[in-house]
């Protein structure tokens, strides 16, 4: 009987040990083996905080009044040039959102009260939710498009920062459209 238990217990024990090892490896990698789409997605409910839509659009409108550069668009189709897959488009927006938070919104947070104090934490939460969003394939198009936006903002200086704040409404709607998609694996460029 002991020999039977030992022979049956051994494969079961080995399977459990292998399963535990797999879980430990995935945890150590931050779950990198999980499907990419699970992390490059926001929920529709993320955009339904009370008044956040109005606060974001009012802030953008106030900043637009101070924006004297009318021939440059930062958040638009050019940002997605050559990128058609939804997960990659959401990844682009994650990169743009992180740049905007770090280089524009946090440094400019003392301006445009009271809306800035509501909008910055909202975008910070979205950034945190997208923090595990990564693209494992060739992403040269993505990096080039994001870098073009960064270079344009930096070249324009404070006027570029004001322009970014004036386009937060576009960032809001684009994040919602591209990252809160439901069961759609690809999207045609427009």
Automatic annotation (TrEMBL):
<dbReference type="GO" id="GO:0009891">
    <property type="term" value="P:positive regulation of biosynthetic process"/>
</dbReference>
<keyword id="KW-0732">Signal</keyword>
<dbReference type="Pfam" id="PF14565">
    <property type="entry name" value="IL22"/>
</dbReference>
<dbReference type="GO" id="GO:0005576">
    <property type="term" value="C:extracellular region"/>
</dbReference>
<dbReference type="InterPro" id="IPR020453">
    <property type="entry name" value="IL-22"/>
</dbReference>
<dbReference type="InterPro" id="IPR009079">
    <property type="entry name" value="4_helix_cytokine-like_core"/>
</dbReference>
<protein>
    <submittedName>
        <fullName>Interleukin-22 isoform X1</fullName>
    </submittedName>
</protein>
<feature type="signal peptide">
    <location>
        <begin position="1"/>
        <end position="33"/>
    </location>
</feature>
């Amino acid at each position: 009987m002991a020999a039977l238990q030992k022979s049956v217990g051994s494969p079961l024990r080995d399977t459990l040990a292998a399963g535990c090892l797999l879980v430990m490896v995935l945890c150590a990698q931050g779950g990198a083996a999980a499907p990419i789409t699970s992390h490059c997605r926001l929920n529709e409910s993320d955009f339904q905080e009370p008044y956040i839509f109005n606060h974001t659009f009012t802030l953008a409108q106030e900043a637009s009044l101070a924006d004297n550069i009318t021939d440059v668009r930062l958040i638009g189709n050019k940002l997605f040039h050559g990128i058609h897959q939804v997960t990659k488009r959401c990844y682009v927006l994650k990169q743009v959102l992180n740049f905007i938070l770090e280089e524009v919104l946090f440094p400019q947070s003392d301006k445009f009260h009271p809306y800035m104090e509501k909008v910055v934490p909202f975008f910070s939460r979205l950034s945190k939710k997208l923090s595990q969003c990564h693209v494992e394939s060739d992403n040269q198009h993505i990096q080039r498009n994001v870098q073009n936006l960064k270079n344009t903002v930096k070249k324009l200086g404070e006027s570029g920062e004001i322009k970014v704040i004036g386009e937060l409404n576009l960032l809001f709607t684009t994040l919602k459209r591209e990252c809160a998609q439901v069961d759609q694996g690809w999207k045609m460029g427009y």
